[in-house]
Amino acid sequence: MLKKRIIPCLDIKDGRTVKGISFVNLRDAGDPVELARAYAEQSADELVFLDISATDERRKTLAPLVEKIAAAINIPFTVGGGITTREDVSVLISSGADKVSVNTAAILNPPLIAELADEYGSQCVVVAIDAKLVDGTWVVCTHGGKRVTTLPAISWAREAERLGAGEILLTSVNRDGTGEGFSIDITSAVCNSVNIPVIASGGAGSPEHFREVFAETGCTAALAATLFHYGIIKIPELKDFLLRNNIEVRYSPLARTETWMRERQRIVNKNKNN
Amino acid sequence: MIAILKYNSGNTMSVQVALRRLGHDSVVTSDPEILLKSDRVIIPGVGEARSAMSHLRERGLDSLILSLKQPVLGICLGLQLMCSRSEENDTECLGIFDAVVRRFPPDERVPHMGWNNFESLSGTPLLKGLEPDDDLYYVHSYYAELNSDTKAICNYILPFPAAMQRDNFHAVQFHPEKSAEAGARLLKNFLEL
Known about the structure:
Chain A is α/β, with parallel strands linked by helices. Chain A has 11 helices and 11 strands. Helices cover 26% and strands 33% of the residues of chain B.
């Protein structure tokens, strides 16, 4: 069975992670490579790196960093933030990124999605959608959630799929950073409107929030940042919780616990009996 | 020497760094002499079947691949190119495996993207040490039909070969280079064949 993916997101600024972390003993908690390796060892299923540098220097720091990450980790990773051209993407993919995530640039220039899909394949192209509930309608925001457009999130998700996006990273701007849980309604609506995988993002504050979004929507992955960085939830513990609640997740052989063995067997038996 | 086939598709860098993590250097090449002389050949793959096959044919790499006697490993699109034909832009492929490559049915969530385990697993040295519970990373919209060379089956929407083998030709639909410890185990097995 295809497992639900747990994806930590790391914010990068000038080649360093912005938020520190407190859950593992790292020599340098600001080093994205070291942090990425720690998450991979804890059985994170993928990683997302979001470059939030505002300077023109970003390209110079990002590509060498992506190369180092690619050499250090053995799970897939997506790089996003400020990507506007094919050239930006070319540098990141040839440096070892598995996927790139485009947001504002795709809204301002939708044919970019098709260009990228043609050149690198749909599986490389993640369209990030920042959705905000305004007067009862979920609309798309640009520029890191700061500017609200009139574009409905659901029609934009459909359009992104039509243009060749391979995956949608859907963030609820209303919930982002609140710890109140994922927005179930918009996540569910987008999942029901497209046939590509959807990553739920924004609002994760407890293991129960992950269970809820996986059980009640068609999303195949859920992303969080603060929660993981500050060790509020450790990934193996989150996965134990999900498995106990009948959500199938992957464990790395290193992280397989007795709980995992027992719960896995219970689910296999349950599926057999059904 | 391990040769990674250089052609117009492929995530050659991920494969190369995965081999380096196992302590092996490799060369990314389309040079027939190097390919023929190397101990192992890997055909990586992310991309589209038709343009990949035209690229191989124009350079005579299609017949070269068929003549290889050392262990060869096709990954993802690499596996699909080793089949007889692909529905992706109706492409004639290499014909090593007697199987047609089809697209997952419409109205299903595609690509099949993420970690999936084996539904069944039969003996092949490539999969030594792997268990049915081991999850590996997949990302694909096309799959090969089940055939007599199938060595492991994955299930997404329908059952399809996760791994195939015929003589010295091995192929996997998942990406071992991105599949954490289980993927590294498989690559190590390939190097030890």
